[in-house]
Design a protein that fits this description.
two-stranded antiparallel ribbon; Arc Repressor Mutant, subunit A; Growth Hormone, Chain: A; mainly alpha; 2 domains
C-alpha cells in the first residue's frame, strides 16, 4: 500500500476550503452574530447561496459530461471564482459586524457570489484530489476534515473579531492551490488512470449519470443524508461546541484505521456492505433503549461520529471514482455540490417546520436516520442478488493451473506489454488472471461493470482468446 503516493503538502490547504465551505450549514453559524439573528439577511443569503449552488452544480455536471471541463477549469474562470469567493465572504463579514450591510439585497448578492464560486472551486479541488485512490483518499480526507473541524471548533469558541481574523486567512488559502494550478495549466494533470478509454463518455449526460450512480450510489446517498442532517439540526454543547462539527472530528478518528486495513476483498464494498451497516445496527440497538438511559445517551454521541464518518467515507469514495478516470471530476463533484446544497436547503427548510421543532427535532431526525439505516441494511442484503454470479471465475483451489499471485502479476505484465494493452487493460488483466470476475474488478477499481466489460472485450481481442477459461489458461502458460 502506497498511501503517501502522489501526496503533496499543499493539498493540506483543502482543509481551509472545508473549514470555509459555505454550503455546509455549521460554517454559516460561525458568523451568526446578534445583528444577523435580528435581520432578514440570513434567510436571503442562505436560500440564494443554496439555490445558486444547485443550479450551477447541475449545469457544471452537464457541461463536464459533454467534455467542457477544461472550460470550467480555465485559469480566468478559477481566478474569477476565487475573487468572488473572497468578495462574497467579505460582504458576509460586513453584514455580521455592521448594521448598514445586514440588508436582504446584499445577502442575495453575497449568496450569488459564494454559490457560483463554490461550485467552480469544488470542481477544481476535486480534480486535484483525484490523484488519490481509495485508501489514500480515506487517509488524507480524514486528516483534512478532522483539521477543518478542529478549526471550526476553535472559531466557535473565540470572539467575533478573532474569528474574523482567522477566517480572513483561511478564505485566501482555500483558493490558493486551485488558482496556482489553474494558472500553471496543471489542474487535473496529476490524475492517473486510463484517460484514453472512457466508454461512459459515449453515453451522453443522462447515460453517464446512470453509470455513475451504479458506482457511487452508496457514498453519494450517505453524503446527501449528512447534508440534510447538518442543515436540519443545530445542537450546541455547553453553549459553545457545535456537535455537528465535533462529530466530524470523531468521524475522522473512526475512519483512519480503515485505510490501513488489509483485506482480500475490494475496500468499497467492505465499507458499505459490512462496516457501515454494522455501525448502523449498533445505533439501532442503542436507540431502542428508553429515554434518559445511558445507552440512548451513548447513541446520541455515536450518531454524530457516525455521520461524520459517513461524510468522510463518501468524499473518499467520490474521489476514488474521479481517480479511476471513468467519469469527469466535473460530473462527479458538480453533481455532488448540487445534491449537497439541495439537501442542505431541504434540511434548513425542515428545521423551520413544527415537526422538526418538537423536542429539538429529535424524533423527526430519528425517523430520517432510521430510514437511512434501513437503506444501508437493505442494500447490503440485496447486493449479492444483483450480481451476475461472476465474482469468481475459478473457485479457490478448483484448478491447479492457477499460478501463485506473484507469478500471475509478472505473467500479466508480460502479456500486457507484448499485446499492447493500455494501462487500465493491464490492470484489469491482473485481476482476471487471478480468477476474479466483472463485479469484483468493478468494485476494486471503482468503475462501472459496463466499463469493465468493454475493457474485457478489448483484452480478449488483443490476447486472442474467447473466454475467461482461455484467458486464465494463457496467463498460466510458462
Amino acid at each position: 500500500m502506497q498511501i503517501s503516493k502522489y501526496f503533496k503538502p499543499e493539498t493540506l490547504m483543502f482543509a481551509a476550503f472545508l473549514a470555509t465551505l459555505p454550503i455546509y450549514a455549521p460554517n454559516q453559524l460561525l458568523f451568526e452574530t446578534e445583528l444577523l439573528r435580528q435581520a432578514a439577511y440570513m434567510p436571503a443569503f442562505a436560500d440564494t447561496l443554496l439555490v445558486t449552488s444547485v443550479v450551477l452544480g447541475i449545469a457544471a455536471a452537464i457541461a463536464s459530461a459533454r467534455g467542457r471541463l477544461p472550460m470550467i477549469l480555465h485559469r480566468w474562470v478559477v481566478l474569477g471564482s476565487s475573487a468572488a469567493y473572497v468578495a462574497g465572504y467579505g460582504l458576509f463579514a460586513l453584514a455580521a459586524g455592521l448594521e448598514g450591510f445586514a440588508q436582504p439585497a446584499l445577502g442575495v448578492l453575497a449568496g450569488l457570489l459564494l454559490g457560483v464560486s463554490t461550485v467552480v472551486l469544488a470542481i477544481a479541488w476535486g480534480a486535484q484530489l483525484a490523484q488519490f485512490d481509495l485508501r489514500q483518499a480515506l487517509l488524507w480526507l480524514a486528516v483534512m476534515m478532522g483539521v477543518a473541524a478542529l478549526v471550526e471548533l476553535l472559531l466557535s469558541s473565540v470572539t467575533f473579531a478573532v474569528g474574523l481574523i482567522v477566517f480572513a486567512v483561511l478564505v485566501p488559502l482555500a483558493c490558493l492551490v486551485p488558482c496556482w494550478l489553474a494558472w500553471m495549466a496543471r489542474l487535473g494533470a496529476s490524475v492517473p488512470g486510463d484517460a484514453d478509454a472512457r466508454p461512459a463518455l459515449r453515453a451522453g449526460a443522462a447515460g453517464q449519470l446512470r453509470s455513475m450512480a451504479s458506482v457511487v450510489a452508496m457514498p453519494f446517498v450517505g453524503l446527501m443524508v449528512f447534508a440534510f442532517m447538518m442543515g436540519a439540526r443545530k445542537f450546541v454543547l455547553f453553549d459553545m461546541v457545535h456537535m455537528e462539527v465535533l462529530g466530524c472530528v470523531l468521524g475522522a478518528v473512526v475512519v483512519l484505521p480503515i485505510c490501513l486495513m488489509r483485506t482480500r476483498l475490494p475496500l468499497m464494498p467492505l465499507i458499505y456492505r459490512v462496516l457501515v451497516p454494522l455501525f448502523a445496527l449498533v445505533l439501532i440497538f442503542l436507540n431502542s433503549f428508553p429515554g434518559s438511559s445511558g445507552p440512548l445517551w451513548l447513541a446520541a454521541w455515536m450518531s454524530y461520529a457516525f455521520y461524520g464518518a459517513v461524510a468522510i467515507l463518501a468524499l473518499a469514495g467520490l474521489t476514488a471514482a474521479a481517480h479511476a478516470s471513468e467519469f469527469s471530476p466535473g460530473l462527479i463533484f458538480g453533481t455532488t455540490v448540487a445534491g449537497f446544497a439541495g439537501c442542505s436547503l431541504l434540511g434548513v427548510a425542515a428545521s423551520r417546520t413544527e415537526l422538526f421543532q418538537i423536542e429539538g427535532g429529535g424524533p423527526a431526525l430519528l425517523v430520517v436516520s432510521t430510514l437511512y439505516f434501513v437503506y444501508l441494511l437493505a442494500s447490503a442484503l440485496l447486493a449479492p442478488w444483483k450480481r451476475d454470479g461472476g465474482d469468481i471465475v475459478l473457485e479457490e483451489g478448483a484448478s491447479a493451473a492457477v499460478a501463485p499471485v506473484r507469478d500471475v502479476a509478472a505473467r500479466c505484465g508480460e502479456l500486457a506489454a507484448a499485446c499492447g494493452l493500455t494501462p487500465r487493460e493491464g490492470e484489469i488483466l491482473g485481476y482476471l488472471g487471478r480468477g476474479h470476475g466483472i463485479a469484483f474488478v468493478a468494485d476494486a477499481l471503482v468503475i462501472s461493470e459496463s466499463t469493465v466489460r468493454t475493457h474485457v472485450k478489448s483484452i480478449y481481442k488483443k490476447l486472442g482468446v474467447n473466454s475467461r477459461e482461455e484467458l486464465v489458461s494463457k496467463v498460466s502458460e510458462e
